[in-house]
Amino acid sequence: MTDLTLEEKASLTSGSDTWHTTPVGEAVPALTLSDGPHGLRRQAEQGDALGLGNSVPATCFPPAVALGSSWDAHLAHRVGAALAREACALGVDVVLGPGVNIKRSPLCGRNFEYFSEDPHLTGVMGAAVVTGIQSLGVGACVKHFAVNNQETDRMRVSADVDEQSLREIYLPAFERIVREAKPYTVMCSYNRINGVHASQNRWLLTEVLREEWGFDGLVMSDWGAVNDRVAALEAGLDLEMPPTGTDEEIVEAVRSGRLPEAVLDLAAGRLLELVRRVEGRASFEGWDLDAHHELAREAARAAAVLLKNDGDVLPLRQGQRVAVVGELARTPRYQGGGSSHVVPTRLDNAWEALGRPAFAAGYRLDGQPDAGLSREAVAAASAADVTLVFLGLPEAAESEGFDRTTIELPAVQVALLREVAEVCPKIVVVLANGGVVSVAEWQEHASAILEGWLLGQAGGSALADLLTGAHSPSGRLTETIPNRLADVPSHLHFPGGDGHVRYGEGRYVGYRHYDTLDADVAYPFGHGLTYSRFTYSDLDARETGSDEWSVEVTVTNTGERFAHEVVQLYVAFDEERPSRPRHELRGFAKVGLEPGDSERVRFALSGRDIAQWSVSRKGWRIDAGSFTVEVGASSRDIRLRAELTSRGDGYAAPLDRMSTLGEWLAHPEGSRALKQLLQGAPGLDRTDPALLRLAMGIPLAKFATFGIGLTSEVVDGLVAAVRGDG
What we know:
This protein is α/β, with parallel strands linked by helices. Helices cover 28% and strands 19% of the residues. It is built from 20 helices and 24 strands. The strands form six sheets. A six-stranded mixed sheet has the order 9-14-13-12-10-11. A five-stranded parallel sheet has the order 1-2-3-5-8. Strand 21 and strand 22 form a beta hairpin.
């Protein structure tokens, strides 16, 4: 660092152009960055500045909405490693992904880039992708840190969220990835958090990320997220992307004394450390296009979720007359719009993969009605035993940069489905969408529904594999499908206005809301059917240490074909008046079994898995008492339960004059001192439940006028006694 001039150090804290860091002579090379949550978007040499329309072809793997639905961390690691292989071949040093923001609302236009409404599942899958990417020495960049859960006004909006919800919902995935996968870089988001821009939020970027979680990598901005270069550096942001030509501001701030040079040295040093970390990345001339396409197909197969299968209409049977209706079967939607858009190496479509059966487009992709197309679809369906109806959202409906306003399918598609259902008794709906769509309005017209999400370049072949029964569906929902938009817990607050969005639902995001209230949903979190059946037995839950437990269960395939089951572990708290979500996912395992085979599935729980964030203590709180472990196939399909007990963390909140009577009586030392003082005290009828209940919420200092001996001096003495001052 001493060999660099002040100007050179300042230059290292911003890019040299849209996709490169700044080199310094021969000693510090420029690093190449590329979008790549689900495929490399490496800009061509003569492309536009962002490369949106002219990137080099690369494998388009299933986006996170689909990959997350596989519930398969090993598969996610393999996809990450394949991304790294292509990054090495294309000269990319840092892949800008994965995106691990929570799906607070199904309307978020970028939900296709994110894994789940649940932080545990998001963290596990995100960590797997990061370790895969970094397995070949390529850097991963976890984004968007933090609380970036909408596209509306995303560069200015303040996400106003309480600390407990931050700690329990919006930060844990980042924390798990930082602690376990050790990403080389983290990308800060555009938005403000409780009024402070993420790019200059010292609490977020330094106190939490570095000092608390131990992150030792580089923090870069989202493209254009920096508003004040000096403030951002002071907060802990190391690299501005792309450059704004303001390096001189940094130099001037150091020379004038406004910015300590040590702060600049830290940021520049982290860029140099990133250079050191990636200098040993692997180098390849290319990659096996066929192998990566097959991996994309495998991931797509694992991602699709069979929501419904009445009468076992799926898989299709030999000899059936099959019709395919829907332009999306021939012109697939396989990824979302915006910065993650990949130019694929090839593209499968379901109609061709199914062998080109009778086909009718049925509708226009722009949503405009076309009576002629509808008539052709009805004619094709009337001659079929089974009609596969491909429905979904058009490309213009969801993208980075804007949010959706509805979760309904296009009206022309729903109308077509009804018409087709009148002439064909067996209807299978295959969906293509990056964000959740409502099924309540039309699912009665379908015998089966296969949620295909956006499945990447091999999605068409993967869907054919599932529909024909070559493989059994194994995806599970990573987000609840509500009956209607108004049922979503964030509905009244999303996307906010006047520069603010209030996270009024708190911790009750997704299934935490629906299951706590036992509210009706279309399909619950974790749901997904297969072509086989599974039973759960022999649950064994036991304590293995201080606030450590093991949970084991046997899963058996009782069906007639090989299939996968996703075993889900929840910790549950049954309270008459809920003070926390009723249950929360704390583990999962995907197992593939032949008919009749069994597997023993094991989980480990720790005190953190039952902890709540305490705002007053500024830390995690583990309460003493019992809790339940639930093992099942979804958040609403719990097969086995067992009760466990925690001794708690032993913490007793300090007492003072304004602590309530109830808090004093719950405190081990305070209760003993207070009970001894109150023995025989007049004016307090301990046999009156209503009076006692009223008294429990009164601060001790307020009893001074009640004539029961708790004068102001006595209360001060009690406080001094329990604090050890007297």
